Amino acid sequence: QVQLVESGGGLVQAGGSLKLSCAVSGLTFSSYGMGWFRQAPGKEREFVAAISFSGSSTYYTDSVRGRFTISRDNAKNLVYLQMDSLKPEDTAAYSCAARRGIATIEPGEYNYWGQGTQVTVSS
Hints:
Blueprint: E1 3-7, E2 10-13, E3 18-25, E4 32-39, E5 46-51, E6 58-60, E7 68-73, E8 78-83, E9 92-100, E10 112-113, E11 117-122
């Protein structure tokens, strides 16, 4: 019943921008912390960004801080990841995730996951 559906991925040149969206249904959205994670071929899934219930608090991994912005619209059950100044190293499948309670940086602590959207950044 719970669904998380990502969109907005694509191919972009280095230095460009993309905005990912995650549509959530089947749960009380405002009661869940939300996170974005990414996984490149041959690499472990890594934390990217997280946002609190109300959107008042955010956290980013060091490699994206200052370039990426996470936000949420609780009225529309949407979470976003604005990605600016993209680098080839950002190439990965990006997934959104929902955690019942406070958002964390640990993927194993999230309850629900989307299938992901591919982001490819060319040199």
